[in-house]
Amino acid sequence: MKKEYTNGDITVVWKPDVCQHSAICWKGLNDVFNPQARPWINVEGADSEAIIAQVEKCPSGALSWFRNGDEKPA
Ligand code: SF4
Question: Model-level pTM?
């Protein structure tokens, strides 16, 4: 199961079964990734480039992203 969060420009994909709760995302960009909040990913919390940079630091592959209009990742 995966969840998708979009700001209209990009979409962040999160796979909870892959997430290792390493905390890297919410320590790095807490305005977007906040495990206390529901939904826990707020794609309005930073600009797309900052979100992409943080998503790409996810060590487990639980987070990925695509630009809206592009083909979705597998
Ligand atoms: S960085 Fe990736 S593995 Fe770590 S808590 Fe965030 S989504 Fe989960």
Answer: 0.92
